[in-house]
Specification:
The chain is mostly helical and about 200 residues long. The protein is about 70% helix and about 0% strand.
Length: about 200
Amino acid sequence: MEPSHDERVPGAPAPRGGAGGRGGEVTETRPPGRVRPLWHRVGDRWEREPPHDLLYGAIVAGFVMAVSSVHAPTGDRVVVATSLVAVGYWLAHCYVDAVSGRFHDSGHSLWERTLAALRLNLGVLLGAVPGIVVYLVGHALGLAVEQAALVAVWCTVVLLGVVGFFAAYRAGARGGRLVSETALAAAFGGVVIAVKYLLH
């Protein structure tokens, strides 16, 4: 079950070969002038705050794009439909977060919880952006509505696979186990592909 916004407290990162700082604080030491690779920094961020909202947004946008692009008269309708559903899903997510969490949160009013939920659940909207952007680029390059939507949905599959790879790798999976977990994560996007072909 997904935690409410007041329960999403980033955990303290585990010490990584650092030296003790003031007050016992562990600080990470790096060779001067050396910058950690981007994928390491992204992994650190996702370890502290898992990208569940981004994944929700990406999957929802993929499903809506797959369905709305079937026999759509214009490409604009696909973008509008996907955007409106993403916003509606974000608002529903915020409502559930704010109201359901109020049962055990006596320290914050529903107004305070709602404002916090609107801010903390923005990942749902951001998760829908990559698919919409890929669709717009494909359509601008001359692809038909359904073709552009198919490319966007395949990009969603890749996105889910990449996140699954990061999660499995950070958890220590290697070799065949890493490949299988990455494939399983991408397979969730494959369901969207299957829906599109069924509706075609």
